[in-house]
């Protein structure tokens, strides 16, 4: 309902009725305080706005019936603390023509009646809710004489619907309560930083579920619910300056309705990798998303930030990764971006968005690597246990004068680039690369997280007789025919490995996909013209298929071409000392032709050189 209209009508009624209820002294002997229950309803856009809420009420004023059928008036309820109302009215009229004119608590003047007569309390029907009634409500909610009154500051027990269905836990967006007709203060007493008996935040609805290689499309983020601003709400309606009905609004709905002034804030973190597996040295672009606060009024120095915690195994550069020409080295490695989007009825971002730049009225960026008083250090090496971080602080934006009309409730999105730098641990495994973002909506906090995985595989280099060979060098490169997930993997930073004394060769830091492995140095004592080559498919971080690629038969097909089998851990390739050791039919002939070809090429070169020398001699 529109409180401005009601308060204006109450003021008119107060003027009309004069001293019967609103001046010094008591109400007329024929008057009757109306104690009939009416319905107050609080509207929400999201059922989660009620998560862990405890709402209390405090009655400020009664309706009075002077003749059993009207006219009706208003008077301060006897249980209300007059000094608290006096202080709250002082806050409400500060800076106006009524500043300094509020009667004292012991003057005998009915303070609520005076406020209505003088027009001290207005009401805004929409954002930004910064009028005198807002100041009045905030001051009352901050006064211990109100909130500390164990008798009259009462907790709402939400009634059940007909049939016994509870208002709680059924996804209902709105809540209602029956109270005697009048004017009330309603306070959401759960502060954003409050915790429950288990030490968990009461404002955290959920933390997000992890986006990873097993759930690469996961966008289920975290959510927090904020504390509602205090609310002053009166029942009934007025018409032509008179209180026509003290019980319900003019539409006859029976519900005296107002918006519950809090909001649910989401936070989502995602990456641009298509399958959640990465190679060492690969670039990844992360996206952080949240919704700017819908309500900031009723709270001083409102805070809002998105803080990111890059885990170990990655390097973040907020300025982007650039080449020698000062251009991004890849399409996803540019500098960080911040954009603001409109949202639709479902809270999803729409349109192309507007770019926001850091500044005194928008946001600031700090990092764990920036020394106090020094320019921003944009490079952050990921670390375990939240030791590395960077923070986008939007406090200046949400505290700006035009925030409620220009930015409130819009979607904010941040993107930035990181380079995978993970290295194997003592067991030869490359740890997962994790990342977390935390939204802080005025101390209401929730997180969302991602995980990128890196795989590995190994094989053994042997002689034809099965003896392990050390010193064979192999180079790995990303193949172009990854038919499994249509993603061409990135060649890892450690692209060259050499067999150890046991013949073991291991490649780590690999994304899922198909790789080509080529022997680039044959051990001494073996045919140098004959080298192994094969392809390996990594799935789930493990080798599941080896496909021979050389013409000599030094590598063999492992089977499991459909990729449905388990990890292959016993693959081997060989070297030979002479052509007779070649395992593949016809391979010896191929090598013989190769060797003969090389000899013929050498002989031809020698003959050509000698003929040139003879020719020069004849012409001397």
Attribute tags:
single chain, six-stranded antiparallel sheet, peptidoglycan-anchor, 620 residues, alpha+beta, SpaA_PFL_dom_1, Immunoglobulin-like, 8 helices
In short:
The protein folds into four domains: 3-190 and 227-259, no CATH class; 264-451, Immunoglobulin-like (Sandwich); 455-584, Immunoglobulin-like (Sandwich); 588-620. 14% of the residues lie in helices and 32% in strands. The protein contains eight helices and 33 strands.
How does this structure look, described?
- With 620 residues, this protein is of the alpha+beta class.
- The chain has four domains: 3-190 and 227-259, no CATH class; 264-451, Immunoglobulin-like (Sandwich); 455-584, Sandwich (Immunoglobulin-like), CATH 2.60.40; 588-620.
- It has eight helices and 33 strands.
- Strands 8, 9, 14, 15, 17, 18, 19, 21 and 23 form a nine-stranded antiparallel β-sheet that branches.
- The longest helix is centred in the C-terminal third of the chain and has 32 residues, at 587-618.
- The relative contact order is 0.10.
- The model is unreliable at 1-5, 11-27, 585-601 and 616-620 (pLDDT under 50).
- Residues 456-540 form the SpaA-like prealbumin fold domain.
- InterPro entries: Ig-like_fold, LPXTG_anchor, SpaA_PFL_dom_1.
- One of its GO terms (biological process) is carbohydrate metabolic process.
- The chain crosses the membrane at residues 587-609.
């Amino acid at each position: 309902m529109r409180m401005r209209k009601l308060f204006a009508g109450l003021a008119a009624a107060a003027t009309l009725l004069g001293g019967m209820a609103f001046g010094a002294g008591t109400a007329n002997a024929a008057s009757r305080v109306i104690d009939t229950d009416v319905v107050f309803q609080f509207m929400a856009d999201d059922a989660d706005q009620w998560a862990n809420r405890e709402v209390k009420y405090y009655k400020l004023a009664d309706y009075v019936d002077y003749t059993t059928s009207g006219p009706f008036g208003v008077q301060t309820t006897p249980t209300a603390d007059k000094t608290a109302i006096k202080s709250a009215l002082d806050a409400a009229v500060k800076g106006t023509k009524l500043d300094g004119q509020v009667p004292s608590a012991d003057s005998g003047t009915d303070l609520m009646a005076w406020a209505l007569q003088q027009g001290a309390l207005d009401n805004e029907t929409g954002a930004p809710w910064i009028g005198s009634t807002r100041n009045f409500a905030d001051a009352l909610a901050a006064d211990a004489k109100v909130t500390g009154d164990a008798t009259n500051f009462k907790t709402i027990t939400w009634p059940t619907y007909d049939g016994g269905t509870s208002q709680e836990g059924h996804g209902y967006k709105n809540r209602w309560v029956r109270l005697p007709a009048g004017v009330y203060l309603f306070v959401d007493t759960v502060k954003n930083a409050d915790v429950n008996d288990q030490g968990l935040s009461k404002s955290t609805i959920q933390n997000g579920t992890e986006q990873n290689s097993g759930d690469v499309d996961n966008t289920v983020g975290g959510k927090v619910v904020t504390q509602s601003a205090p609310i002053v709400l009166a029942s009934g309606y007025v018409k032509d300056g008179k209180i026509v009905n003290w019980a319900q609004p003019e539409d006859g709905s029976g519900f005296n309705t107002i918006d519950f002034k809090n909001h649910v804030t989401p936070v989502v973190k995602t990456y641009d990798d298509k399958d959640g597996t990465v190679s060492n040295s690969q670039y990844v672009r992360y996206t952080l998303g949240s919704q700017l606060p819908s309500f900031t009024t009723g709270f001083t120095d409102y805070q809002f930030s998105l803080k990111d915690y890059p885990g170990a195994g990655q390097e973040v550069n907020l300025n982007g990764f650039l080449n020698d020409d000062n251009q991004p080295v890849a399409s996803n490695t540019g500098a960080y971006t911040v954009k603001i989007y409109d949202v639709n009825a479902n809270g999803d971002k729409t349109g192309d968005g507007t770019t926001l730049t850091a500044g005194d009225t928008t946001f600031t960026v700090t990092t764990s690597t920036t020394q106090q008083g020094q320019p921003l250090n944009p490079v952050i090496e990921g670390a375990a246990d939240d030791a590395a971080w960077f923070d986008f602080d939007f406090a200046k934006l949400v505290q700006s004068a035009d925030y409620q009309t220009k930015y409130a409730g819009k979607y904010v999105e941040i993107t930035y680039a990181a380079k995978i730098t993970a290295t194997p641990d003592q067991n030869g495994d490359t740890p997962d690369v994790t990342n977390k973002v935390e939204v802080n909506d005025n101390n209401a906090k929730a997180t969302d997280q991602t995980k990128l995985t890196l795989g590995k595989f190994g094989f053994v280099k042997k002689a034809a007789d099965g003896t392990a060979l050390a010193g064979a060098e192999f180079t790995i490169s990303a193949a172009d025919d990854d038919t499994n997930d249509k993603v061409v993997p990135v060649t890892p930073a450690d692209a060259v490995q050499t067999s150890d004394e046991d013949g073991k060769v291991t490649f780590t830091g690999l994304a899922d996909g198909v790789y080509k492995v080529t022997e680039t140095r044959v051990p001494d004592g073996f045919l140098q013209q004959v080298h192994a080559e094969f392809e390996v498919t990594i799935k789930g971080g493990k080798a599941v298929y080896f496909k021979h690629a050389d013409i000599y038969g030094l590598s063999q097909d492992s089977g499991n071409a459909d990729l449905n089998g388990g990890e292959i851990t016993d693959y081997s390739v060989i070297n030979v000392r002479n052509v007779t050791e070649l395992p593949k039919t016809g391979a010896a002939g191929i090598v013989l032709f190769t060797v003969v070809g090389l000899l013929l090429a050498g002989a031809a070169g020698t003959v050509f050189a000698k003929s040139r020398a003879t020719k020069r001699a004849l012409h001397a």
